[in-house]
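seq:
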Amino acid sequence: MFLDNINKKSKNNILNCLPRFILVSLVLSMMFLSAIFLQSCTPKENVKLYFAKYEGNNEYLVAEERSIIKNEDFYKSVIEELIKGPKSEQLYPTLPKSVKVYSVKVNDSLAEVNFSKEIILNTSEIPHSSSTEVLAIFSIVNTLTEFDQIKKVRILVEGKKSGQIDGIYIEDFWGHMGIYEDFERNEEKILEE
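struct:
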């Protein structure tokens, strides 16, 4: 008798829980399918990011394609992907990973890119030399000028084109080429693969 009561209660509990289980399963399935659907409907654009490649005594920029979500901060997202570095083991990053992109504003075919101070202060990841400086600047410029609406790029650090940050002159950038001017695309540095 006692066991019969326990069995009846267990069956009732299972039957009571079954509709909840089905409902929770349906909700979770719907959430999963919605996430997949939204991800596939999010507009993306394939972009070319330029990274360093070294061959003997020569250094080049080589394009690597990425698919980036097209949103209101699209150009900022593009430069953030550039900072993440290449996926290919044959290519090298041109910018330190600690660098933040505050903004990328485009007006009259000029893209103004505002970076955090780490772009000029962090020398541990990317040694500052004349060749790495050219690659860093033109990886930014050539990446952004892939877009028809951008013809020139201005690089800012902490919102400034000149002045000092921690004793370093912004306009000197890494101490060789400098960022005294707005830059146009440099096809000479690109190695087609």
